[in-house]
Amino acid sequence: MKGIFSEKPMLFLDGGMGTQLQAKGLQPGEVPEMWNVLRPHDVRAVHEAYFAAGSDVVYANTFGANAAKYHGTATLEEVIAAGIGIAREAAQRAGGRRFVALDVGPTGRLLKPAGDFEFDSAYDAFAEQVRIGAKAGADLVAVETMGDTYELKAAVLAAKENSTLPVLATVALGEDGKLLTGGDVECVAALLEGLHVDALGFNCGFGPDRMLPYVKRLAALTSLPIAVKPNAGMPQVVNGRTTFTVGPDEFARDVVALAEAGAAVIGGCCGTTPAHIVAARALCTGLAAVARQPSPRTIVTSGSRAVDIPFGDSIIIGERINPTGKKKLKAALSEGDVAYVLREAVSQADAGAHVLDVNVGVPGLDEATVLDSTIQAVQSVTDLPLQIDTSDPKALERALRHYNGKALVNSVNGKEESMAAVLPLVAKYGGAVVALTLDEDGIPPTAEGRIAIAKRILARGAQYDLKPSDFIIDVLCLAVSADASSANVILEALRRVREELGCRTCLGVSNISFGLPARPFLNATFYTMALATGLSAGIVNPLAADMMTAYRAFRALTGKDRSCTEWIEAFKDYAPSAPVAARKPAAASTGDAKGESALSAAIRHGLKSDAAAAAQTELAAGAAPLDVIGGGIVPALEVVGKGFESGTVFLPQLLMAAEAAGAAFEVVRSAMPSNDAGSVKGPIVIATVKGDIHDIGKNICRALLENYGFKVIDLGRDVPPERVVEAARREKARLVGLSALMTTTVCFMEETVKLIHAELPECKVTVGGAVLTADYASKIGADHYSKDAMGLVRYAEQLFS
Amino acid sequence: MTVSLEEIARYMRMGRTVPDGALAARVSELRDAALKAMRPSHTWRRFPLEENAISSGAMRIAIGGTLARHLAGCSSAYLACGTIGIGFDAFHRRVSANSGVDALIAQAIGAALIEKLMDSVEEEIRADLQPGETLVSRYSPGYGDFPLAAQRELLAMLDATRKVGVALTGTLLMVPSKSVSAIIGARKEITYR
């Protein structure tokens, strides 16, 4: 049956089902799948009409038959089995080679992070549907009308893991050519190819004319059969009814263009009828099959962004989410402080990274759990594709499974154990994989030796159907201080991987300078040399100005940055560097109140970089760190805080002042001896309660608390009570802050408060949120009600004084 | 579609105070980014108002209590749903990771944008009115005693999940978060002579 898509040059699907059933009397709001048991003759008549029209495949009436969406009175088993059975009967009556597809549509729920539905719950719903459908005798699974890559992945995985049937997957593009959650054609193609569907394409959305550019794009990306099921034009509302106006002949003419662009599996969606299929079939039969030979590309994706790892250019993989040698990150990961990790992600993205490496290897942590949750959290704040960096195959599998998109895997190496563990996972979930040129005997000293290992890994990959374009070879950067030939060997290996193996390359560049002084200069120079040798991806720190300058300069000088646009953008405010202290502060921060210091004025005006510079100036002039805090930062904050309480300063201004104070505080803290730097108050655990995804209030509280010098452990939103208790216990927190925005989620707040008090009697709980009042707060047992973020700060100051 | 600093300031609870200095710069910068991230869409449909319900096929929204009083004298009602899209939520999550101020400003920008969108939806609906008809103000599930649970029927009757991508969480919150659904009554204009 797997050959269904290669049996004939052109395979015809059916047309619209919903619109046909409506014509037979299906009422709005009625569950269409119930007709499989209530009005089987009507459903069968639709299938028969399509088979008579020349459809090779009909979709059974099971589009919404998943546990998350379906709410009919018959069981799922009953409606799915009946649906497949009806279509089977119609197929038998029609005779010849006819096929029945289990139709799998979306759940109607939005998955996290956009919504609240778990990936695993979506998977379970689809898996149940597929098991019933396969057992009932479906010939293939047709996943369709998906508007979210993450839900698409859940559905395709469910189909592959719960049946042996071929899988056809189509998505619904919006008018801007993107999925509802922002994915484009490249994202969809990379994901579906990686998951090894048997055919892929588009359905619904619009008519065949507007589908053409996307079919062309898809044809250039994949060699798999392309399926199209367009609507009969754009929906139009006439007298309150949705109608489709493109008739069979016009539809067929436009479908021919789709076929000529490469579509080989053809049907219709909303508003199309058997007459549309007859007409399309008449015009498409006999068209010569389009031979496609897309050039191999290495694309990694998130849910809404595709990144091409180039062969003639280079991208940046941000290396900062890796606890090796980073105390703060290590602490954040151990404490479950998601917010810290997210800031690292966003700042690297803002600095220009294209892909982010995520490594959470901290001794004593359950890596599989932490990697999984960290990847999901990072994907919620950035659309950059991620590089999953772990040596634990269990952690890798869980992360790959829950990753939204096609990930970059870091890494496999030439050791048999590594190849046997990692390559099957990459083959199953899709992905590109970094191959390290080392094996049981270590890292070969010569380029020759490293090439040999790369070849071995590629050969082994071929056994799992992985192509050279699925690999990015890391020829490994060793310190030039330990071996004088190191840089030369690396550059030779980079060149030869490119020329002899036709593979893309990556490199952790800064290892080169290990053990030497003035590392930034060596790193940037070596980075330039590697770029000139054809490095496809540098694993670097995007916040390191020297590295980004080297990268931008290289691209400007080699014509990759057309018209030097990016260079100009990056350096439009460039001025030859001057000592920080000599920099002229902005006008507002010179202090408008008599006798006010520049530091205090900068804080009051919310000028972050001016505040940091002013603190630096005071320190340089010999002020003691504690005096800068006590004499400048704290009084300025006090003025602003009082202003807020009396209504002359508004919340955004208070927060800006607090951020400026935080920036100054950071400068002072780094000048303090390390034992004094521990003078941080807290910790305070904060969370938005289970069921609630509105976390603005909580985020504001976090920002303010942090800038008032508290250590905050932010557990994020939609946090179950047990996780709050667990974190508070682990961190020995004396205060927990909970927020809830909606009346429907306050019940979970109450549950959380009760659990904390039962388990941790010493711990105080303060609550806040739009629907809360002081009365209600005490009714649910909270120790304190925070009317706003400042109220929380005051309470915390009192508690920790 | 865009919004002014004044409009955004109202949603930052600054009243009539207009942001200046560093805050104004920050607001403008975030507004530009928000406009790129948003993807507004909307849908609406007119229904006859029955005795104490609006219905369509098997779907039915019961109308009683404060909503019934609000719709007194109306013979028809429009159901409407608008959203500035899921991309705005992603943008909001991103800026919130870095800064509480940005989180607050972005949320105010979103609130101002969805309000503006709904105003324009109302204008569009107004153009659909029959001669002599006028609209009463928008009323959403969760106002007064109009139950939040009516959200399910309201969105289903508009086919809003498919048409504009608005879905509900298990706790009946709308996603994308900057979305509005409402019932807007239409009644004969009262003319005084």
What does this structure look like?
The complex is a heterodimer of chains A (801) and B (193). Chain A contains 29 helices and 25 strands. By secondary structure, chain A is an alpha/beta fold. In chain A, β5 (167-171), α7 and β6 (199-203) form a beta-alpha-beta unit. Chain B has a single domain, classed as NADH Oxidase. In chain B, 43% of the residues lie in helices and 22% in strands. Chain B has a four-stranded antiparallel sheet with strand order 1-4-8-5, sandwiched between helices. A two-stranded antiparallel ribbon of chain B has the order 2-3. In chain B, α1 (5-11) packs across α5 (100-126), α2 (21-37) packs antiparallel against α4 (86-98) and α4 (86-98) packs antiparallel against α5 (100-126). The chains are: A alpha/beta (801), B alpha+beta (193). At the A-B interface, α12, α24 and α25 of A face α2, β1, α4, α5 and β6 of B.
The overall strand count of chain A is 25
Rg of chain B to the nearest angstrom? 18 Å
CATH topology of chain B: NADH Oxidase
Q: Tell me the radius of gyration of chain A.
A: 30 Å
Number of domains of chain B: 1
SSE blueprint and pairings:
The complex is a heterodimer of chains A (801) and B (193).
Chain A: E1 11-12, H1 18-23, H2 35-38, H3 40-53, E2 57-59, H4 76-94, E3 99-104, H5 119-135, E4 140-146, H6 149-162, E5 167-171, H7 185-194, E6 199-203, H8 208-219, E7 226-229, E8 235-238, E9 241-244, H9 248-260, E10 263-266, H10 274-284, E11 299-301, E12 306-308, E13 315-321, H11 327-335, H12 338-351, E14 355-358, H13 367-381, E15 386-389, H14 393-402, E16 408-413, H15 416-429, E17 432-436, H16 447-462, E18 471-474, H17 486-501, E19 504-508, H18 519-532, E20 537-540, H19 545-557, H20 565-570, H21 598-604, H22 608-620, H23 625-646, H24 651-671, E21 681-688, H25 696-707, E22 710-714, H26 721-730, E23 735-739, H27 746-759, E24 764-768, H28 774-779, E25 784-785, H29 789-800
Chain B: H1 5-11, H2 21-37, E1 41-48, E2 53-56, E3 59-62, H3 65-70, E4 74-83, H4 86-98, H5 100-126, E5 133-135, H6 150-158, H7 160-163, E6 167-168, E7 174-175, E8 179-188
Antiparallel strand pairs in B: 1-4, 2-3, 4-8, 5-8, 6-7
